[in-house]
Design a protein that fits this description.
Layout (H helix, E strand, L loop, with lengths): L22 H13 L6 H14 L3 E5 L2 H11 L7 E4 L5 H9 L3 E4 L11 H10 L5 E5 L10 H11 L7 E5 L7 E2 L2 E2 L6 E5 L12 E5 L2 H10 L8 H6 L20 H12 L1 H19 L5 E2 L12 E5 L8 H10 L15 H6 L9 H9 E4 L7 H17 L5
Helix pairs in contact: 1-9, 2-9, 3-4, 3-7, 5-6
């Protein structure tokens, strides 16, 4: 991008996200290539050790995506046919889809009126009606890095668990590294946590994720199920004195491991996570100062431990003569990369067909947020010129569409 683009009148291009990658990441990847061991091995083990030390988890398992990690975590927490999972309709599809893949039912709880977080009161209403004790897991989703009320959610899981049916709390922490409250980091506040290292996340391995837990039984199950139900890892089979073909399949597992070539990226990104966080917060402060006086926008919620993975603005329809989609298209036409987090699941054909009563009417807050939210660019290496251009463009479009009194 040229410095004089804005001055010349030509629209700038501000990507929605661009990963911050440098020479250290390049060297780490090249070192793995030079080692000739590209799949899961010592570098991945080191990444797991680094990550669990960072957030204070007893166990950490690197996986090839958050989706794979969620599947493993749900499996380890007993999600299966005849059971049910509570989660939010305001999430990416994989959160609920993993439960379906395991044969379980999904029960949806609306989000809170003033945040994107699942509402504990709606969770409890579902649990009160669960007279057959089918619910075995609650999956809160920390949207944009702003944490759900984990104290209330953990208390509900404990309150409604029975000796025959323990209710686990599995955090969908895809957005929430490095969110931290007085109780600890996201990902260790529940029974298991699942992170994403997709390219747009707060740190990246390109594709990948991490499952964390302090529960030894959950950890044992994940360790086996992550790689085909095999009782030995590839690294162990090819580096230990024991013959590589001597292994057993003890469960019908999955293929979810993260290779060393991606873990190398993760180890370097983890070292820079604090700096990334500081730089994102600086952008957020500038956005908040600029947009705080715009009556056609609602600022993102900001609670304890917010990781600020995304900057979500909500348009106020009563103040504008356009809908969210028109506003978003005009941002794109001006060169601003935007996204929508999220299209609520009840808008999708599969979920409408699976659950006929799963409609926007029954989830008013998820429906309202889904219809009016836009995700603006937020990444560590954004220049001041980029941030200013986003602000001026959002403000200009809002003023253009402001309803006349």
């Amino acid at each position: 991008m040229k410095e004089d683009s804005a001055r010349s009148g030509a629209p700038m291009t501000v990507p929605f996200f661009r990963a911050s990658l440098g020479e250290d990441e390049k060297k780490a990847v090249c070192d793995v290539i030079d080692s000739h061991w590209l799949t899961t091995g010592s570098v991945t083990q080191g990444f797991e050790d680094d990550f669990k030390a960072y957030i204070g988890a007893k166990h950490a398992f690197a996986v090839n995506s958050n989706t794979s990690g969620m599947l493993l975590a749900m499996d380890a927490c007993g999600v299966r046919a005849g059971k049910a999972v509570i989660t939010t309709p305001y999430t990416f599809v994989s959160t609920a889809a993993c439960a379906v893949h395991l044969g379980a039912d999904v029960r949806f709880a609306d989000i809170e009126a003033d945040s994107y977080s699942i509402d504990p009161e709606k969770i409890e209403a579902i649990l009160k009606d669960d007279t057959e004790h089918k619910v075995c897991a609650i999956v809160p989703v920390h949207i944009a890095g702003n944490l759900c009320d984990m104290k209330k959610i953990r208390a509900l899981a404990q309150k409604y668990s029975t000796p025959e049916n323990r209710i686990y709390v599995i955090e969908d922490a895809a957005h929430s590294f490095p969110s931290k409250t007085a109780d600890g980091y996201a990902g260790v506040l529940g029974d298991a946590g699942v992170f994403s290292f997709y390219v747009t996340k707060t740190m990246t391995t390109g594709e990948g994720g991490m499952v964390t837990t302090n529960d030894d039984a959950i950890a044992r199950r994940i360790a086996v199920m992550r790689l085909h139900g095999m009782d030995r890892s590839a690294w162990d089979r090819y580096t230990s004195p024991r013959a590589s073909w001597e292994y057993d399949i003890v469960a019908c597992g999955y293929k979810c491991n993260l290779p060393d070539i991606l873990s190398a990226l993760g180890r370097e990104q983890l070292k820079r996570a604090g700096d990334f966080f500081t730089r994102r917060k600086a952008v957020v402060r500038t956005y908040n100062a600029a947009f705080g006086g715009c009556d056609f926008l609602r600022l993102p919620p900001d609670g304890e431990g917010n990781a600020w993975h995304l900057y979500l603005i909500r348009i106020v329809p009563e103040k504008l003569d356009c809908d969210r989609d028109t506003f978003a298209r005009e941002l794109q036409a001006a060169g601003i990369g935007i996204s929508l987090h999220f299209i609520a699941l009840f808008h999708f054909t599969y979920w409408k067909n699976r659950y006929p009563d799963f409609t926007a009417r029954n989830f008013p807050y998820a429906a309202e947020h889904s219809a009016n939210t836009i995700s603006l660019p937020l990444w560590p290496d954004m220049s001041g010129e980029m941030v200013d251009y986003v602000i001026s463009t959002v403000t200009r479009i809002g003023e253009k569409h402001r309803k006349k009194d």
